[in-house]
Amino acid sequence: MNHLLRLFRAHPNSVDETYLQHMGAAFSFGLPMFIASLALIVHALFPFLFVKTGSNVVTALHERMVTARKRQRASP
């Protein structure tokens, strides 16, 4: 059981988060990506729909991730 707990905590600890904090952060990226993927599937069938949805979501998430990294590195 101890080994299993270490597996669940290793990566979140490596980014200075608890398991629950990391779960929330992962969901906050995964859910928009999932919704965007559905929009992109619709876009594949109907190219006039959701023309910029995928790129807008990717850009927003990338900006958020890069900004968060820079903020973490800047804090003592």
From TrEMBL:
Residue stretches spanning the membrane: 20-46
Keyword set, alphabetical order: Membrane, Transmembrane, Transmembrane helix
Stored Pfam families: DUF6356
InterPro entries: DUF6356
Keyword Transmembrane: yes
Highest taxon, organism lineage: Bacteria
The protein, known as: Capsule biosynthesis protein
Lineage, broadest ranks: Bacteria, Pseudomonadati, Pseudomonadota, Betaproteobacteria, Burkholderiales
